[in-house]
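Whiteboard transcription, Tuesday session. T.W. wrote the C-alpha cells on the left side:
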C-alpha cells in the first residue's frame, strides 16, 4: 500500500532532478548546438571545395582532386590522385588562436606544412616542404586563386637557394562534370 503524499514526493524529486540536469547540462548542450566553424574565418577556403579535374599550365590533365568539409565544417580534407598514380592527402584548417590557416600535406614522397591566410583574394600559405627519401627540407609556399570562370589556380614554389623561388607546380582546377 502506498503512503499518502508519496506520489507528490516522487514528482518533486523528479522535477528537482530534471532541473538540476538542465542547469548542469545547459553549457554542454549550448556548446554542442553552436557551430563555431561556420563563422567567416573558417569559410575563407570554401572556394576550393568540390570534386576537380586538375590540369597543368600546358593544359594536360595532371590528376583529380576532391576537397570535402569534415568535422562539422572545421576541416577541409583533400584527396589527390595524380595522372601517374601518385596520391596524397592534406588537412586544412583555420587556427583561431594563431589567426591563420594551416595545411599539412602527406604523400609517399613529401610532407608539406604551410600556414597563412587570404591576401589579395588568394589563399597564401607559407612554410616548409620535406622530401622523405633524402630528409631535405626547404621553404615552400602555395597560392590558391579563384578565377572568374569558376576554376581555381594553384601555384606552388620552393626555395632551395635563400631568396630564390622556383616554380614547383602550377595547376588549374576545373569542376569535374560528374560529382561523386
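and on the right, the sequence the group agreed on:
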Amino acid at each position: 500500500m502506498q503512503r499518502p503524499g508519496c506520489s507528490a514526493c516522487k514528482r518533486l524529486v523528479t522535477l528537482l532532478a530534471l532541473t538540476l540536469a538542465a542547469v548542469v547540462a545547459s553549457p554542454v548542450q549550448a556548446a554542442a548546438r553552436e557551430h563555431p566553424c561556420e563563422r567567416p574565418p573558417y569559410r575563407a577556403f570554401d572556394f576550393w571545395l568540390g570534386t576537380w579535374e586538375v590540369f597543368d599550365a600546358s593544359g594536360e590533365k595532371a590528376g583529380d582532386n576532391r576537397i570535402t568539409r569534415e568535422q562539422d565544417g572545421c576541416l577541409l580534407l583533400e584527396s589527390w590522385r595524380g595522372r601517374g598514380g601518385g596520391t596524397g592527402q592534406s588537412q586544412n584548417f583555420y587556427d583561431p588562436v594563431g589567426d591563420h590557416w594551416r595545411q599539412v600535406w602527406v604523400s609517399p614522397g613529401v610532407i608539406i606544412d604551410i600556414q597563412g591566410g587570404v591576401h589579395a583574394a588568394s589563399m597564401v600559405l607559407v612554410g616548409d616542404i620535406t622530401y622523405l627519401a633524402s630528409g631535405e627540407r626547404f621553404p615552400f609556399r602555395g597560392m590558391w586563386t579563384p578565377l572568374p570562370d569558376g576554376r581555381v589556380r594553384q601555384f606552388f614554389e620552393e626555395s632551395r637557394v635563400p631568396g630564390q623561388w622556383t616554380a614547383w607546380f602550377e595547376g588549374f582546377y576545373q569542376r569535374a562534370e560528374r560529382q561523386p
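Someone added at the bottom: Confidence is low (pLDDT under 50) at residues 15-20.
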